C-alpha cells in the first residue's frame, strides 16, 4: 500500500525528517536530500511514483525547470512541490511546469500523505482555494506581474483613480470638486485617501509616483471623465 517516493530539498534536515516520518507510515523513500541543481537528475535516475520537490521561492523565474525536465523524461512520476505559503502565481507556475500539486512546508504529515496519495492517483493535490487562484492565473496571466503601477492601481477605487489623474494634471481641490461634481470637502477626503494608499505625503509626491510607475498611462483611459 506504501508509495515509492523521493523527498528532494536543499535543506537536508527538513528532507530527512519528512522522509523518516513517511517511512514510519509505511512508504518507501528512495532518497532524502539533494541540491536543487541536481534534483532532476536524481529523480529521473530513480523514477519514483511520487517526488516531493522542495523550493523556498515558488515565484522565482525558472525555479520549476527541474519539474519540466522530470515530466519530459519521466512523465509517469508525479511531482509535488513542497514550499512556503504560495501566491496564485507560484502555484500556477508549478502546475504549468507539470507538477501534480503543492504542499506547504507547515502542513501536517497527514496532509502530506493525503497529497501523495492524490498525486499517485492522478489528481490535483492542492487546497481548492489555492487551485482556483492558480487556474485563474494560468487562464489570465498578468502581462507584467511585477509591475508597480498595476499594483498601485489595484489599491485605488475608480473615483480615487480619477482624483489622482486630476491631481497629476495640477488641479486644486476646487477644480477637482467642480470637475467631478462633488463638494470640496469630499474632494479633500478623496485626495487624502489617495495619498494614504500610495504612501506619500503630498500631492506632488503622488503625481511623481504615478508618473514614475506608469500608473497614469493605465489610469487615464479608465477614468473616463
Protein described:
This is LuxR C-terminal-related transcriptional regulator. GO terms for molecular function: DNA binding. It comes from Streptomyces rochei (Streptomyces parvullus). Keywords: DNA-binding, Transcription, Transcription regulation. By secondary structure, this protein is α/β, with parallel strands linked by helices. It is 56% helix and 10% strand. It has 12 helices and 5 strands. Helix 7 crosses helix 12 and helix 9 crosses helix 10. The C terminus is likely disordered.
Whole-number mean pLDDT: 83
Give the strand content: 5-15%
Q: What general outline do the C-alpha atoms trace? A: elongated
Q: What is the number of helical segments per DSSP (H or I, 4+ residues)? A: 12
Considering DSSP H and I runs of 4 or more, what fraction of the residues is helical? 55-70%
Number of strands: 5
Low-confidence parts lasting 5 or more residues at pLDDT below 50? 221-225
Distance between the terminal alpha carbons, to the nearest Å?
A: 66 Å
| Largest beta-sheet characterization | 5 strands, parallel
Which class do the helix and strand fractions yield?
Answer: alpha/beta
Q: In which order are the strands of the major sheet placed? A: 2-1-3-4-5
Give the H and E element order: EHEHEHEHEHHHHHHHH
Amino acid at each position: 500500500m506504501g508509495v515509492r517516493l523521493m523527498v528532494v530539498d536543499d535543506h537536508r534536515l527538513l528532507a530527512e525528517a519528512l522522509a523518516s516520518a513517511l517511512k514510519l507510515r509505511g512508504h518507501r523513500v528512495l532518497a532524502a536530500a539533494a541540491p536543487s541543481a541536481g534534483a532532476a537528475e536524481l529523480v529521473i535516475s530513480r523514477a519514483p511514483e511520487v517526488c516531493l520537490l522542495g523550493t523556498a521561492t515558488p515565484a522565482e523565474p525558472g525555479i520549476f525547470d527541474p519539474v519540466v525536465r522530470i515530466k519530459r523524461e519521466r512523465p509517469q512520476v508525479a511531482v509535488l512541490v513542497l514550499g512556503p505559503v504560495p501566491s496564485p502565481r507560484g502555484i500556477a507556475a508549478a502546475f504549468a511546469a507539470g507538477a501534480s500539486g503543492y504542499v506547504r512546508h507547515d502542513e501536517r504529515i497527514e496532509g502530506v500523505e493525503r497529497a501523495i496519495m492524490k498525486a499517485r492517483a492522478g489528481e490535483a493535490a492542492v487546497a481548492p482555494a489555492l487551485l482556483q487562484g492558480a487556474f485563474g492565473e494560468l487562464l489570465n496571466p498578468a502581462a507584467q506581474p511585477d509591475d508597480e503601477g498595476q499594483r498601485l492601481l489595484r489599491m485605488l477605487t475608480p473615483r480615487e483613480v480619477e482624483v489622482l489623474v486630476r491631481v497629476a494634471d495640477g488641479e486644486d481641490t476646487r477644480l477637482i470638486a467642480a470637475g467631478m461634481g462633488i463638494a470640496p470637502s469630499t474632494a479633500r477626503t478623496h485626495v487624502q485617501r489617495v495619498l494614504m494608499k500610495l504612501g506619500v505625503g503630498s500631492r506632488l509626491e503622488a503625481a511623481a509616483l504615478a508618473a514614475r510607475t506608469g500608473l497614469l498611462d493605465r489610469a487615464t483611459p479608465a477614468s473616463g471623465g
